[in-house]
Design goal:
CATH topology of one domain: Endonuclease III, domain 1
CATH superfamily of one domain: Hypothetical protein, domain 2
Oligomer: single chain
Shape: globular
Order of helices and strands: EHHHHHHHHHEEHHEHHEEHEHEEEHHE
Helix content: 40-55%
Largest sheet: 3 strands, antiparallel
Strand order of the largest sheet: 3-4-8
Distance between the termini: 50 Å
Radius of gyration: 22 Å
Bound molecules: iron/sulfur cluster
Amino acid sequence: MSIVEFDEERAEIIFDLLTYFWRMARPFIKLPQDRMILPTNASPREIANYLYFLAIVQRGGVISDTPSDRIHELYAKRPDIFDPVEVVKLTREEIRAILNSEDDPKRPLAYKIDEFSEAWLKNAELLVAEFGANALNLVDAPDFLSAYDRVRGRLYGIRMKIFSLFVIWLQERELLSRFQTVPPPIDFHALRLLMSTGVVKTAGLEDSIPERIRLTKAAEEYPMLIDTLVGRPGIRVNERLTDAVAIGCMKLIEEFGYTHLDINPGMWTFSRNMCSKAKQNAVSRRHSLLLDPEVLRTEPGLWGKAKDPCEVCIMAEHCDRVFPSEPYYRLGLLVPIVRLNRSEGLRLIYYPREDLSVRFRSLVRFLTRNGNGKHAASKKEALTEQYSLFIDP
Ligand code: SF4
């Protein structure tokens, strides 16, 4: 039995909205894998091997743009280290030196350089020894789960989330047509969106955060955060949970006739662009404020002047709770906060609730092209200028 419960009716509504959102948002968004530079005459094997190595650096709390960009640059300079036959001729130290390039003072892979270089070598060895040095052979199976079962625990640093990502990239490039639905890679953003909107029910997953977290290393570094968290409900995120959510989502996406190729980037982009800017999820001076409704009611000035995406969110009526990112990234905990509507007294202009296409346009202002806080494209600015959000009642 799964450790996770889904609200199926809610899932159908949210998947529908996410599909709609992603199809509208796609032109404004550049995903990390979109920035890949491969020669136009690259063979399917070369592309698949490249994506296989790119997947290695997607580990961590989030699917990150910076490590991906580093891999794209590296390919331009050292295409040989994307060929497993060449990689197995190198030592781990040599791979480490290449990945942790001297020519980039920022060293974007330094934070996990030992793990990445180990994974680079070990996964190349597995490909050469058992899969004909071709990552496409990893997916030579009738469906996702059979392919994953063959390599589960044998790919270094690649578990279900990253394997899903790799498979999705192959599908996006039309290198894999056999698999139907794939479990969406469940990271913080996917979990946040599914839990905020009630698709994944959290009641059975929550526990009061115990005093003993004061004994963790994080407590020394983030004492204020720990003080705020002790005694609140929290959900410990582990692989059992993320795999159960991924499999459950896959089944529902299939059952309702949607595609993970919309739902997956839709969830990730929505949480990263919209939910992250919700006032109650906001981070100030590198700290989540964990603003409970009572605090905001007592001190309405805390809302500040910035527009809040929740005000125009196409999912707001289904979203009861927010999940700030800091407890997750520091402690692996999802901490729910009851969501407060900022402006029940304000009404939207131009946006009849039933007209999603018009309502969507009000969300565009919150999109960042990379979803990482970089400045908005001028096209977006021009579009959003046309639509002011609120009028007073
Ligand atoms: S209402 Fe706010 S927190 Fe909830 S899904 Fe929408 S943007 Fe995210």
